[in-house]
Amino acid sequence: MKLWIKIALLNVFIVVGLGILIGLTIRGVVVGSMRTELTRQGESIARNLSDRIADFVLLNDLYQTQAAIDDVLKTEHDVGYIFVTDKDGNLFAHTFKNGYPPDILLWNPVLTRGLQPTKNLLASIQLLDTEKGFIRDIGIKIFGGMNPEVHIGIREDRIDQALKGIRNLIIMLTIAVTMVGSVLSFSLSRLITKPLYTLMDFTHSLSRGEFGRKIDIRSKDEVGELSSTFNNLSCELDAYRKKMEESYKQMLRAEKLTALGRLSAGLAHEIRNPLTSIKVLFQAFKDNPALTKEDMKVVLSATEQMDDLLTRFLRFARSDEFNLSDIYINSVIKQVINLAQFQIKNQSINVVLNLSKLPPVKADRAMIQQALLNLVLNAIEAMPDGGTLTISSKMGNGSAVVSIGDTGSGIPEDIKDKIFDPFFTTKSDGTGLGLSIVYNIVSLHNGEISFETDGEGTTFTLRIPISV
Predict the structure, then answer these.
(1) Tens digit of pLDDT for each residue in 388-440?
(2) What pTM was estimated for this model as a whole?
């Protein structure tokens, strides 16, 4: 979910939450105030009625008592019912047209607080839950210390209507405020997060290696300071990359010269054979100036052989730039075997190729050739008394997988974690850059390199993505 959507939704949530909280608070205050007012009103009506019917109750004058009760019921619209008890505590007069409830005297009896009737409760208030809703029963003693009571039931219809009005008002206000707040929130959140998205795109470009770019955010807040910091970082990374590229090129050239030195004996031997053939023919030419057609073919074949050898070596030596193109890994493997052919023959090494058909790989041909050659030469040097060099290729999870294994003595346990470190070597004449160069070349192609080793040999595995 986008950040600006989260901010907008958070603002909407806050607005709705505040609306509900304020509504509940207002509702509580209004309900409390209205119930207090209704209670006071009921107490006032009850006391006035009590004063008016006191004499009638003593005289058991039901007619006058009922008339006074009916007058109150006509003028006070919040009154739901009225009933009066006589001096014996029995129901005396009431307003229930269809008969009074049998347990009416138990609804809200006006009792004293102790066992001794020394201090009567002037008014007893009880909230009753009836079929017609909540009714607040207010009962008072007509005479202190005597049984006659007057009870008035105050309906809460006014409170219900007020609550409905408040609820509808709060809902409308909340909807209106939410709509306005949503529009403002979405607009402001987009305005606030727009520089962040620009900054995020810029960081993505940095992660892709596009150093040297600058982001144009001129705000004077934290985002502006952050963009300025990223601009400086981009420039520093660009300068650092250029230095690293130059250093890496120098390391690659040094390792290439080392590899050429290790191949020089084979080059000399391969050139010596055709040169010997040419030399023998020309020595014979001194004694017999006539050369046959077959002799000329031998000379031309030997010359082409030397030219091909020198071309392959020079191509390998002069390739320094990082140029991506579609290459076939199996073809590169065969060229590496040809380059190391003399060492392979000289040490009586058996080469086993298990090459599967692979699609072209987007890679730098010279660098992949350099990496594979380093691994092949290391494998050959690990088998000074001969052995088997196994090279295989296959597809695996969208990558070309190349394995180069030897039957040497393996890598000691104590140096397994160091073999890819620059300048680490166990050879007296080594540079310590061979496997480090291989590791860097594979990393440049977004690939992986791993190895397995034991007392019966070592196998290095390279994984190069089909597309980078």
Answers:
(1) 999 999 998 889 999 999 998 888 888 888 787 765 666 655 555 677 778 87
(2) 0.41
**Structure tokens belonging to residue 239:** 């300068």
Asked if residue 375 lies in contact with residue 412, where contact means CB atoms within 8 angstroms, the answer is no
Q: What is the mean pLDDT of residues 273-277?
A: 66
Say how many CA atoms lie within 13 Å of 44 toward its Cβ: 8
What's the mean per-residue pLDDT of the chain?
78
Domains observed in the chain: 3-165 (3.30.450.20), 321-468 (3.30.565.10)
- The set of residues, in sequence order, having a beta carbon less than 8 Å from that of 462 and lying 6+ positions away, is 371, 372, 375, 401, 402, 403, 404, 442, 447, 448, 449
Nearest to 157 by CA among 76, 256, 273: 76
Average pLDDT of span 4-15: 70
| Res. 133 pLDDT band, cuts 50 70 90 | confident
Burial class (CB in 10 A: 0-12, 13-18, 19+), 437: buried
Centroid of chain to Cα 464: 28
Residue located via tokens 């962040």: 196
Q: In degrees, to the nearest 5, what angle opens at C-alpha 317 toward C-alphas 316 and 322? A: 75
Rounded Cα distance, 330 and 340, in Å:
16
Are 33 and 70 contacting, i.e. CB atoms less than 8 angstroms apart? no
For residue 102, pLDDT beyond 70: yes
Distances, alpha carbon 423 to alpha carbons 45, 370, 398, in Å:
105, 17, 33
- 78/315: higher pLDDT: 78
Residue pair 434/255 in contact (Cβ under 8 Å)? The answer is yes
Query: Which H helix or E strand runs over 392?
Result: strand 387-396
At residue 321, what are phi and psi to the nearest 5 degrees? -80, 155
pLDDT at residue 320 greater than cutoff 60: no
Residue 400 is given by DSSP the state E
d(CA 367, CA 322): 8
